[in-house]
Design brief:
Elements (H helix, E strand, L loop, with lengths): L6 E7 L5 E6 L13 E4 L7 H11 L2 H4 L6 E4 L4 H6 L34 H13 L3 E7 L3 E5 L4 H9 L3 H4 L3 E3 L9 H5 L7 H8 L9 E7 L16 H33 L1
Parallel strand pairs: 3-4, 3-5, 5-8, 6-7
Antiparallel strand pairs: 1-2, 2-4, 6-8
Helix pairs in contact: 1-9, 5-9
The structure holds zinc ion.
The site of zinc ion has 5 residues, from strand 5.
């Protein structure tokens, strides 16, 4: 069994010259494209440390070691400058999850950059995805407490990840899938809230040369891992509550969410 081996490289420098690490269970240099590759992404927002730490612990887990037959690439830290500073944005104050080249909007509530793909971190991720053509992409964020599928081609992946959770583990989350087809006008309204996000580009904007599109899910971690249910409307202060909880007991938060998150990631890799 060789699955615990990790092949690491950088996919490109950040604004301040830091590497953006990629860790794979196969040799990225020897094999540019592997069939049915899964790409897991964390740390797009530098002030969401749990997304980084949960992917780093996944790389050390028995589940990772057992993924021999499935090609998996982990980008635990997509925004190293933001992580270093503890900020959502990159070093130039841009929200990398509003900087992608599909449905990009200069009027975005979060700073989207001067143009689509204006930031080196987003370009590095775009070029890496175009070169490696992952069939499945899972991006981790804080903390809307839901599993989102972007695009009809992503529904089955999200359902497989959801099926990996037992009923108690599902309680702090909800599952959101959209069956809206590409090019349907209603999408513009439905997704106006996150223009230029990675989910929109991969889920609706990206088609590989063979005509396929990646299955794209966003795993929004719980703001309260012990919540009895996920309310339809989140309280405005849910992020502030989470940051308080994190400062008090980050280890306890990670212990509570890790089994479910790792189960969903494993299901995505095996799908
Ligand atoms: Zn985020």
């Amino acid at each position: 069994m060789s699955g615990s081996q990790i092949f690491a490289r950088s996919i490109g420098p950040s604004v301040e010259g830091l590497g953006i690490p990629a860790c794979a269970n196969f040799d990225l240099a020897a094999e540019p494209v592997r069939k049915n590759t899964t790409l897991l992404i964390g740390g797009t927002h530098g002030d969401e440390p749990a997304t980084v730490l949960l992917l780093e612990s996944f790389l050390q887990s028995p589940a990772w070691a057992a993924l021999d037959a499935s090609a998996v690439i982990v980008l635990p830290l997509a925004n190293p400058d933001g992580y270093k500073r503890g900020t959502r944005y990159n070093a130039r104050g841009v929200d990398l999850n509003r900087n992608c080249g599909f449905n990009w909007s200069a009027a975005s509530e979060e700073p989207p950059g001067t143009a689509p793909w204006s930031e080196p971190e987003s370009r590095a991720l775009r070029d890496f995805i175009l070169a490696r053509r992952p069939a499945k992409i899972v991006s981790l964020h804080w903390a809307l407490a839901e599993l989102d599928a972007d695009g009809p081609q992503s529904t089955a992946l999200a359902q497989a990840m959801w099926a990996a959770l037992d009923e108690p583990a599902r309680r702090p989350y909800r599952l959101r899938v959209t069956e809206l087809g590409r090019g349907q006008r209603r999408l513009q309204q439905t997704y106006a809230i996150c223009p230029g996000s990675l989910g929109q580009w991969c889920g609706y904007g990206l088609t590989y040369p063979d005509g396929s599109a990646p299955a794209m899910t966003t795993l929004e971690l719980p703001y309260d891992p012990h919540a009895a249910s996920r309310p339809d409307e989140l309280a405005a202060e849910h992020l502030a509550e989470l940051r308080t909880l994190w400062q008090r007991d980050s280890a306890g938060y990670l212990r509570a969410v890790e089994p479910g998150v790792h189960a969903m990631l494993t299901a995505a890799c095996l799908f």
